[in-house]
Amino acid sequence: MGLFDRLGRVVRANLNDLVSKAEDPEKILEQTIEDMGKDLIELKQAFAQTMGSQKRTEGQYTKALQEANSWEQRAKLALSKGEETLAREALVRKKSFTDTATTLKEQLDQQNAQIETMRRNLTALESKIAEAKTKKDMLVSRAKAAKANEALQSTMSGLNTSGSMAAFERMENKVLDMEARSQAVGEIGGSSLENQFAELEAGSGVEDELAMLKAQMTGSAEPKAALPEGSTEDKATPKDSAVDAELDDLRRQLDNL
């Protein structure tokens, strides 16, 4: 018996889980409001039937009272004419209609109470339906928003964010490397060009200075005045020897470069 109870509990649990998963809030709410609408229609029909029955009972009650009053008047008439037996028969009829009126009055009171209860229930049901329609729209919107958010979260969780960010970082580093290489090549090219111009400027300075020295030396080496015939040039002066020694020293320095 315990095993069957456990199996039954498992089956019910699985069925409840399937039903819970299959429930669509929007469809369930629509169906609930539709069912409430049907209940409202049935209640209105019952209310209409009860009202009709109440009207009929009220008419029967009024007629019974009228008949009872009529037979009472006939009994009085019979007595006034000395027809006691006929008066007694009229009173018997009066009692019958009076009893009927009493019974109908009880039914009428019950129907009036029932109608009042049905009227309150009808008003309450209409109010609940109106409230349910308002809540339905709100709940459907919330359900759709929750479903969309769930889908978004599932999509986000399915994305390989770390891998994507790593790819972006690799590409960023690659671009930085490319920019660094480009800048280095530019600097190398610019440096080479600057060096070439620097060499040209240095060379120009040396050539200019050399030309200036040549001009100075040419100016200082103007021809001396002609000596008288028969005279000979004096031997080299100490100053000329010093100049020659300085020139020899400059040549040695240039050779050692």
Automatic annotation (TrEMBL):
Keyword Coiled coil on entry: yes
Residues forming coiled coils: 94-149
Keyword Transit peptide: no
Region (Disordered): 209-257
Biased composition (Basic and acidic residues): 232-257
Keywords noted in UniProt: Coiled coil
InterPro entries: PspA_VIPP1 (IPR007157)
One matching Pfam family: PspA_IM30
Family (UniProt): Belongs to the PspA/Vipp/IM30 family.
Protein name: PspA/IM30
Organism listed in the record: Crocosphaera watsonii WH 8501
